[in-house]
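Supplementary Note 3. Input sequence used for the single-chain structure prediction.
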Amino acid sequence: MQKVAALLKREISVLVNDYIPKEIGIVSITDVELTSDFKDAKVYISFLDKSKENEIFEILDQKKAEFQKILGKKLTIKFTPRIRFVVDNYQEKIDKVEKLLEEINNGS
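The predicted structure, written as discrete structure tokens, is reproduced below.
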């Protein structure tokens, strides 16, 4: 399952970078989670300009079916997973924890 997720991550990264206009900024695929039956894939994305979030998701939603079709031709697996894009808030969580730790250390 990890190999398929890694392959999906690589292939979807290429597709996203081909279809997201450069003026919107860089969109990174940070992780892909597959269901055990390989029918659904949750694709985590991150980007620097949070003001472009709606525009990015609009483009990705429009291209999702095309991405799945391309992936179906490239991958040699029984099912092409349905893709669902979600924002990866991992860095924000790290920043929040670091800020809290800093506040604790400064208060001591």
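The mean pLDDT is 88. Residues 53-74 form the longest helix (22 residues).
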